[in-house]
Amino acid sequence: MVKEHEHHHHDHHHKQNKPKNDLQENEHCHHYEHGEHHHVHHHDHSSHSGHDHHDHCGHGGHGHHHHHGNFKKMFWQSLPIGLIIMLISPMGELTLPGQFTFPYSDIIALVLATLLIFVGGKPFFQGGLAEIKEGQPSMMALIGLGLSVAYLYSAYAILADYFTNNGGGMNFLFEFASLILIMLLGHWIEMQSVAKAGDAQESLAALLPKEARRKEADGNYTLVPISNLVVGDLIQVQAGENVPADGRIIKGQSQVNESLLTGESKAVEKEINDQVIGGSTNGDSVIEIEVERLGSDSFISQVQELVDTAQNQASRAENLANKVASYLFYIALTAAIIALIAWLLIADLPTALMYVVTTLVIACPHALGLAIPLVVARSTSIGAHYGILTKDRQAYELADKADVIVLDKTGTLTKGQFDVLTIKSLNSNFNEAEITGLLAGIESGSTHPIAQSLVQYAKDQNISPVEFTENKVISGQGVAGNYEGHSYQLISEAAYGENLDFDRPTGATVSVLVKDGEAIAAVALGDELKDSSQDLIQQLKEAGKEVIMATGDNENSASIVAKELGIEYYANQSPEDKYELVKELKAQDKHVIMVGDGVNDAPSLALADVGMAIGAGTQVALDSADVILTQSEPSDIQAFLTLARKTNRKMKENLAWGAGYNFIAIPLAAGLLAPIGITISPALGAILMSLSTVIVAVNAMTLRVKEDD
């Protein structure tokens, strides 16, 4: 299936608010559950329509508005308080080695526990309330319930001991403190593991210069902030500068790099009346443009709008840990209610209360709190070893489900630069080395990508460029210069007007070196496929994935690469076209991975279930993606898919270990089997809980992708 689309930019008439970035270290989204990372979609970037998305962290499609602070800081502040409580509070009826009590030690533990609620417990109580309000109690509600019951019952037991004759029973402050510490640790571990989310909106805004050189009524130019520009202003753009606004050239001609629109690093010839877009880079000539589009109508703003919309889509990750916690919450509550009624009938209120409290405290998911974060920490460190940075934990689950992979061409499957493929002398008086020196000499000083490739090629071959005089640009054709009384030109094959007899590589751009009107050499330049691209496509097809290439490049270049790789493709894709393609695939209920490296890929990277950015690409692409392949190698896409599959399996194993303990322990703690003599004391419950936590930790460490990990 081969499709070619024209560029089209719909105008978005939306108020584009300024991007914000007020996050501290380890704080890109703090409504976490069970050490899980929840985003509205990928990262919470811009402030839009009055919402602050830093605080708007989606969870199963619902947004909580919490900013739970810095978990690393909370953990370290809570640790000494928690350890003292655990040192002076027996674990159930057990006194552990090193523990001790003294007169009023339980009162001190209770005071410290009260302090601990404010230092480290707050996020869990707030999160639990938010879940209950939404009618979706899961991990935070389960933790909040266990903590509340453990604290309130312990306070009652300790105070009753001092103020009543019959004593109040056992306190659960050991469990209370250990749960807060383990949960804070789990959150911190995971936050530390996933790479920090960047701000795509800010990276996009940074493409526009802060000031523009505006032509005043008297013909002079003054520097003005771009926010002061109005449609119709005339602005001058110097060589090498970024264009400040969308407009039309009214004076001069130049080559402009429009890679942010097309992904192509090849400079495009621009003349009077041609359109230029804000953020593109001017070549080596001065141009004057008339401003035509500003604010929400501009190209950059439309890309920002698309990225913003994409980032506010709810993730389609299932979030198994949340589901498990949800079941545990209802099981614990049901078991506690049954225990209360049954033990009130069989015995008395103190006995009934004891069983209820034991049930709800034992339901606390210590192991579950570490089940996911420890796997994520292990997985991300293995990934980093291979140059793969993961910014969103959900990327593992979604990549594992992927049906279709959309790949950008330039810079992703190909090297994204013009390399010299062949130099052919057409005149027996010149050898290849002499031709190389002439080519590098006539192009020296030009910023055109072809020129830079030729100069670099000569440098790599240790050939000195020939020193030309009177170098000049021939508009739309190439360059010219004089050397030893002869006039030379390096022009396109089309400008030369004759087909040359030489074996040209597929899809190459051919330039002709002309001396005094006669062709003496031809040079073919092209964007080559990366070495591992063929293997990657082969592996993806074998894995049953649908592979599509979507490129801003023209039909001809796109078809050559697609044919070579044997994949379907879409050519001439604007950023919006790529976005619509991903949207359409998702509408067919396919899980989509998008891989790209340019500004034009940013909206589709943000919208895809998993966006993977090539590390050598633009900052905007890196900020819009969930996964960064720092080595820019296509083979790393397959490496990430393998890592995702194994990580996912390990997460499920850990959930089974972590939750399995609770499913067994809850009914026992409720005294379900007491009539036949089987009960579980809080101390035994705590030992089993510690055991399941250790198993989960050890299991996470056994994650391997290859033998040497």
**Global geometry:** elongated
**How many strands, what sense, and barrel or not for the largest sheet?**
8 strands, mixed
Task: Indicate the mean pLDDT.
Answer: 83
CATH class of the domain at 387-415 and 531-644: Alpha Beta
Strand content: 15-25%
Q: CATH superfamily name of the domain at 387-415 and 531-644?
A: HAD superfamily/HAD-like
GO molecular function: ATP binding; ATP hydrolysis activity; copper ion binding; P-type divalent copper transporter activity; P-type monovalent copper transporter activity
Catalytic activity: Cu(+)(in) + ATP + H2O = Cu(+)(out) + ADP + phosphate + H(+)
Keywords: ATP-binding, Cell membrane, Copper, Copper transport, Hydrolase, Ion transport, Magnesium, Membrane, Metal-binding, Nucleotide-binding, Phosphoprotein, Translocase, Transmembrane, Transmembrane helix, Transport
Organism: Aerococcus kribbianus
List the helices and strands and how they pair.
Layout: E1 2-4, E2 47-48, E3 51-52, E4 56-59, E5 62-65, H1 71-88, H2 105-133, H3 139-163, H4 173-193, H5 200-205, E6 211-215, E7 221-225, E8 234-237, E9 246-251, E10 254-257, H6 259-262, E11 267-270, E12 275-276, E13 281-282, E14 287-293, H7 299-311, H8 320-346, H9 349-362, H10 366-385, E15 388-390, H11 394-401, E16 404-407, H12 409-413, E17 419-425, H13 432-443, H14 449-460, E18 469-474, E19 478-483, E20 486-492, H15 493-496, E21 509-515, E22 518-526, H16 533-542, E23 546-550, H17 555-565, E24 568-571, H18 575-587, E25 592-596, H19 602-607, E26 610-614, H20 619-624, E27 627-629, H21 635-669, H22 682-701
Parallel strand pairs: 1-24, 16-23, 16-25, 23-24, 25-26, 26-27
Antiparallel strand pairs: 2-3, 4-5, 6-7, 6-8, 8-14, 9-12, 9-14, 10-11, 10-13, 15-27, 17-22, 18-19, 19-20, 20-21, 21-22
Helix pairs in contact: 1-2, 1-4, 2-3, 2-4, 3-4, 3-9, 4-10, 8-9, 8-21, 9-21, 10-21, 10-22, 11-21, 13-14, 21-22
